[in-house]
Amino acid sequence: MTQRTNTGFQPHTAVVGLQWGDEGKGKIVDVLTAEHDVIVRYNGGANAGHTVEVAGERYALHLIPSGILNPGKRNVIGNGVVVDPEKLLEEIDRLRSRGVTVEGNLQVSDRAHVVMPYHKEQDAALEEFLAGVANNDKGSLAIGTTRRGIGPAYADKINRSTAIRMGDLLDASYLTDRLRVICRLRTAELKALGVHAPPLDADALAVRYAALGERLRPHITDTVYALHDAIADGKSLLFEGANACLLDIDHGTYPFVTSSNCSTLGIPPGTGVPGNHIGRILGIMKAYSSRVGAGPFPTELLNETGNLIRERGREYGTTTGRPRRTGWLDLVAVKYSAMVCGATGIACTLFDVLAGFDRLKICTKYRLADGSVTDRFLPDARTLAAVTPIYTTFDGWTEELRSVTDRKELPVNAEKYLAFVEEFLGIPIEMVGVGPDRRQTLVGV
Ligand code: GDP
Ligand code: IMO
Ligand code: MG
Questions:
Q1: Ligand 2, pocket-test mutation among 243, 253, 315, most atoms within 8 A of CB
Q2: Candidates 12, 36, 50, 277; catalytic one
Q3: 274 Cβ partners below 8 Å, 6+ apart?
Q4: In a domain? residue 6
Q5: Quick count: other Cβ atoms within 10 Å of Cβ 247?
Q6: Do 261 and 360 fall within a single domain?
Q7: What is the pLDDT of residues 163-194, one digit of tens each?
Q8: Does 50 participate in catalysis according to the annotation?
Q9: pTM of the model
Q10: What local confidence, expressed as pLDDT, does residue 391 receive?
Q11: How many domains does the chain have?
Q12: What pLDDT is attached to residue 397?
């Protein structure tokens, strides 16, 4: 009998955001694609916006893994992703029109759940409803979602009987039967949320989505076996997290989170690949903090410094264009995420943005409402909203970092900032981002 063991060196890598998203995961995945064969998305959907810049060309990827710009690599959308077929086809067409090959190098799980138009309507209607209802003077309960239908699509996945999977799009008669039931329910639900549109037309929707399915048919497959076959063939996998650990449905700042397990804990259920295959987990940490949408953010800077960080870092949403909230680096939060994700290394991104500040601050502890001090993160949104950050202050540097090619060339104060982060987290910084282009990445540091 052949015995399989997973105890040796595992060549597979995960990239995961350690803050509230937009840490520069897309760029790091693009860089790491060179040393991997298969790039795999395991969670989220078109709420993600991953930017890759190559030779002055900027690509925004939402559903397709950020490895797609590298010829000869396989890109997989795993079963844990919720796929909006219209958005996926738009993305494929956009990439092809720019000369990027998207053919057999893109596989989509037949078990990935479909984001339907009514999911997007439900998402928007619920947000509008919540925004319009006062919550005892505590502001609204709206989450500030991307309105891409993510929450409602995952809710249907859990409900089971109201869900559609990518494989279902390939069977028009099955799809029609299901949609006839779902649309009756959805029409009533949308009406209750104040959407007074004509009833959903199940048959028309079935025709439209079966046609989208036909266009995607060459890509739809059993990705669980595809990934395990690749592993058996000695290929190396790169898992690309979307959203980020602090937006994780279980481990993030609930309820101001997204609806999937964005931490590395989402990889096994979202791909069918067990965690013991992953030897390297690179946590992506922006050199400061940002957040888009509602929810607690202890180190937020609602002042000129925050505005300056926003402008220098071009902190406007890749998916929605919304200005991102900005603040100092919160290492209490990052250390928690690194623990939950099992980070073995850190990529510190957007480090160039911090040049030119007299003083920089890093949060290393929280003071609670009762005056006590803690170095532990408090993911519950209400508890976190009540903490005051305690900072360590650093002298800044004036030199721009964008043309630096080696960590040893960094200004002394910039190096002190990085060394402090490494010491505090107890995890090495393996990469430093000094600009948006894939070449502006210091590696092996
Ligand atoms: P993701 O969602 O984690 O992939 O990040 P986004 O693409 O949403 O946002 C990161 C932004 O920062 C994008 O505009 C990137 O082009 C840009 N970026 C990534 N790394 C760096 C870096 O090291 N320096 C600078 N200045 N920009 C970067
Ligand atoms: P990437 O992969 C930043 C946030 C939304 C909102 C909350 C819930 O680009 O880092 P949703 O539409 O998912 O129901 O919204 O989560 N959010 C993100 N913020 N980057 C992302 O992805 C995000 N994905 C979701 O702004 O606050
Ligand atoms: Mg993003």
A1: 243
A2: 50
A3: 6, 268
A4: no
A5: 27
A6: yes
A7: 999 999 999 999 999 999 999 999 999 898 88
A8: yes
A9: 0.97
A10: 98
A11: 2
A12: 98
